[in-house]
Predict the 3D structure of the following.
Amino acid sequence: MKLKKGDEVKVVRGKDKGKTGKVEKVFPKLNKIVIPNVNLFKRHLKARSQNQPSEIITLTKPLQVSNVKLVCPKCHLTTRVSYKLDNKSKIRICIKCRQEI
């Protein structure tokens, strides 16, 4: 997974195209991420008892990783991620400015 929790990303496809935000949660097996205030959906909840009325809540659903691009912290451009092996450790590199992420 080339994106990690805390990365700044920009949505490039879908109904929220153009919005940016930090990655809140990552699901590597599903290839999805959660970004706050992006991909919001309304959910109608039925009243369970007389004390608890029915309500409409807003949920943030996971977004496919292919629909977002990483925003490089150095050059502030949307970019893809490359890797460089350095003493048994993988380092993420910005394709555009060739700097460490």
Summary: The two ends are 14 Å apart (CA to CA). Residues 83 and 92 are 5 Å apart (CA to CA). The chain has one domain: 8-94.
